[in-house]
Each structure stands twice: as structure tokens, then as C-alpha cells.
């Protein structure tokens, strides 16, 4: 409780805070919002309070934004900062006045046309076109400073698009039968960290055929013991044994993400792709039990060649009784001789 001047009583008086629903008109639309008002204890009249009135108006604007899908002030600020732009640079890029950007970031309600333009900043390719446009009121020095930052975002956006498409494709394949993914939605980063964990524990680069078998055994062993896979990858029956579905696309995607390096290498008459960890291995998405599963697989089978692992996988009914391209459900993990032998070593 505080003391304020009441014009009705013409004196300083005690006031109370009351919460009530008030209806604000925002661009002709009635918006009910919770308002916190000051009330004179002596006469019961509402007292004007600029700070509380502005807070209530902001709530009304926010509700209007939610109803119409407008960007919030923090969204606008985030978009500007994503490209390292100052408020003045963003205004010049869009052909607006500096005050307009400042007001929007402080909470003023943008109109529909401005909101649509701001939303297009989510696409770095659009921003790059603006930077290179002669209509943008930027100096040549500003263009040279901004262009590399936006170009980097274009590259990251392309990689993320590839990852999203791959994840969506694999998840859709498992929608009707979740056991195909081991009851875990496929996640490219988690898959990439499993790849890094295997390559690191083997102690160096390996051919992709061998990596595919170690991934398969790690995912299937974890499912056999926990009823959930590590990566959510689907595994297909291929000529050289089980391998992750869309494997030829997964590895280049991980390379684009900067998680692995893929190099073509000759080994006698065989020419294959070897997988290296790019930089340091990252395992934050994987749990301790998942990493322990990978270590058990590597300890048991990591010293075998790709050819030997392929030969062993061909003896399994899960591979032998399917046609090339068929997805091997994780329930087959319970009957894999390779996994039974591995589990017997742990008993």
C-alpha cells in the first residue's frame, strides 16, 4: 500500500492495487486484458498511473500479436542481432526511419505490411538480396561488413534445411510402425554424435561400411536392453549388410554440419570412403548408458575389418531373409547372434 495524490479528494491518500479485466480497442478490435489499477481508499476512484497504463497497453498489443501472428518486439530484436545489425543499419536496409525500428523494439505495434517484411528477414537469402540492392541506404563499407555475416547464415540455413528434410523423411517412414526407428524419432545431431563416439573409441578413421555395422549393432543392442534405440535411425538390408537408411545422404549431411570429414582412400583394389571426426568429438546429446553401449560394441567388434563384419551380418536371419532395401525392425535385435554373444561376454 502506498500514498498518492487523489485529484477527486484533492489530497494525498492511501491507495490500493486492484486487478480487473478491462477492454482495450486495438485497431478497431476489442481486446480484454488484465489491468492493474490504483484505487483511492477514501473515495474509491481510479487514479491515473502512466507506468501501469503502459503495461496494460503492452498486454493488449501482445494479445493482438498472438491473435494475428505478428512478431513480438523480442523477435524483431533477435532477427536484427542475428545478422549483427545495428538499429540504424536495419532501418537503412528496409528503407525505414530509425525511429520506426526503435519504436517496434520498444513495443509499438507494427502494421501488417511491416510485419510481413520483417518476417522475411528469417530467410538470410532475402537479407543478402537486400544488402546487395542499390535501394538499401547502406554505405559500401557497411555492405562489406554485413555481407560476410549474412552469407554465413545462408550456409547454415542450407545445412539446417538439409537436416530437417532428412529427419522428416526418416520420421515419416517410421510413423506407422515406430519399431522401425526403435521407438525414438530420428535426430541427425544425435546420430552424428554416435558416429563421432564410435570413430573416437575405435581410435581413428574407418571405412563407412564398418561404421554402418557398428552403428547398427550399437542401436540394436541398446534396443534389446532398453526397448529404445540410441539414434532413431532406420536400418536397411543392403548387399554389404545392414546400414542406416539413407546412409549415402546422412554422411554428407554430417560433413556439412562440421561433425565429420569424409575422404576417399584406396586399400589395395578397394576404394572406399573413410570417416574422420572433424575437430573434437561432442557427446552431449548421448546419455552415459548409451555411450556405455557403444563402448561395449566397439570393444567386441571394433577391431574387425569391414569385410569380416559384413560376413558376420550375412549369417543373421534378420539380413538373410529380407530383400535389398527392406527395413529391419528393431525387434530382430532379440534374435541377433552377434548381440547374444556380446551380451554373454557381459554376464
Protein architecture, described:
- By secondary structure, this protein is α+β, with helices and mostly antiparallel strands.
- It folds into three domains: 67 residues, Ubiquitin-like (UB roll) (Roll); 82 residues, no CATH class; 169 residues, no CATH class.
- Helix content is 52%, strand content 18%.
- It contains 14 helices and nine strands.
- Strands 1-2-3-4 form a four-stranded antiparallel beta sheet, with helices on one face.
- Strand 2 and strand 3 form a beta hairpin.
- Helix 3 packs across helix 4 and helix 6 runs antiparallel to helix 7.
- The longest helix is centred in the middle third of the chain and has 35 residues.
- It is elongated.
- The chain starts with a strand and ends with a helix.
Question: Which keywords apply here?
Answer:
3-stranded antiparallel beta sheet; alpha+beta; 4-stranded antiparallel beta sheet; 347 residues; elongated
- Write down the secondary-structure element order: EEEEHHHHHHHHEHEEHEEHHHH
Q: Residue-averaged pLDDT, rounded?
A: 89
Total count of domains: 3
Compute the CA-based radius of gyration. Answer: 30 Å
Approximately what portion of the residues adopt beta-strand conformation?
Answer: 15-25%
Uncertain stretches of 5 or more adjacent residues: none
Structural class: alpha+beta
Annotation field: number of helices? 14
Main sheet attributes: strand count, strand direction, barrel closure = 4 strands, antiparallel
- The helix content, as a percent range, equals 40-55%
The shape, in one word, is elongated
| Quantity of strands, as a count | 9
Strand order of the largest sheet: 1-2-3-4
Our measurement of the CA-to-CA distance between the termini, rounded to an integer number of angstroms, reads: 70 Å
Amino acid at each position: 500500500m502506498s500514498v498518492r495524490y487523489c485529484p477527486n479528494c484533492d489530497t494525498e491518500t492511501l491507495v490500493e492495487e486492484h486487478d480487473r479485466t478491462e477492454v482495450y480497442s486495438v485497431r478497431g478490435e476489442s481486446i480484454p486484458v488484465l489491468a492493474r489499477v490504483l484505487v483511492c481508499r477514501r473515495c474509491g476512484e481510479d487514479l491515473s498511473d502512466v507506468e501501469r497504463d503502459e503495461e496494460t497497453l503492452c498486454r493488449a498489443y501482445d494479445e493482438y500479436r498472438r491473435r494475428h501472428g505478428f512478431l513480438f518486439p523480442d523477435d524483431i530484436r533477435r532477427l536484427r542481432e542475428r545478422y549483427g545489425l545495428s538499429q540504424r543499419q536495419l532501418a537503412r536496409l528496409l528503407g525505414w526511419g530509425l525511429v520506426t525500428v526503435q519504436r517496434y523494439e520498444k513495443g509499438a505495434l507494427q502494421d501488417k505490411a511491416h510485419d510481413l517484411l520483417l518476417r522475411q528477414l528469417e530467410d538470410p537469402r532475402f537479407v543478402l538480396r537486400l544488402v546487395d540492392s542499390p535501394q538499401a541506404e547502406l554505405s559500401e563499407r557497411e555492405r562489406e561488413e554485413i555481407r560476410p555475416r549474412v552469407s554465413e547464415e545462408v550456409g547454415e540455413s542450407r545445412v539446417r534445411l538439409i537436416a530437417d528434410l532428412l529427419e522428416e523423411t526418416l520420421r515419416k517412414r517410421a510413423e506407422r510402425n515406430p519399431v522401425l526407428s526403435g521407438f525414438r524419432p530420428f535426430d541427425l545431431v544425435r546420430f552424428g554424435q554416435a558416429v563421432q563416439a564410435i570413430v573416437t573409441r575405435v581410435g581413428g578413421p574407418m571405412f563407412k561400411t564398418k561404421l554402418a555395422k557398428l552403428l547398427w549393432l550399437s542401436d540394436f543392442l541398446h534396443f534389446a536392453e532398453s526397448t529404445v534405440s540410441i539414434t532413431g535411425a532406420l536400418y536397411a538390408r543392403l548387399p554389404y549388410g545392414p546400414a542406416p537408411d539413407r546412409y549415402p545422404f546422412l554422411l554428407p549431411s554430417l560433413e556439412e554440419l562440421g561433425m565429420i570429414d569424409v575422404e576417399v582412400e584406396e586399400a589395395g583394389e578397394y576404394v572406399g570412403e573413410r570417416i574422420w571426426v572433424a575437430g573434437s568429438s561432442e557427446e552431449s546429446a548421448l546419455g552415459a548408458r548409451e555411450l556405455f553401449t557403444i563402448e561395449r560394441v566397439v570393444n567386441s567388434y571394433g577391431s574387425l575389418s569391414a569385410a569380416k563384419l559384413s560376413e558376420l551380418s550375412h549369417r543373421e536371419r534378420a539380413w538373410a531373409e529380407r530383400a535389398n532395401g527392406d527395413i529391419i525392425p528393431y525387434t530382430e535385435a532379440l534374435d541377433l547372434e552377434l548381440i547374444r554373444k556380446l551380451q554373454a561376454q557381459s554376464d
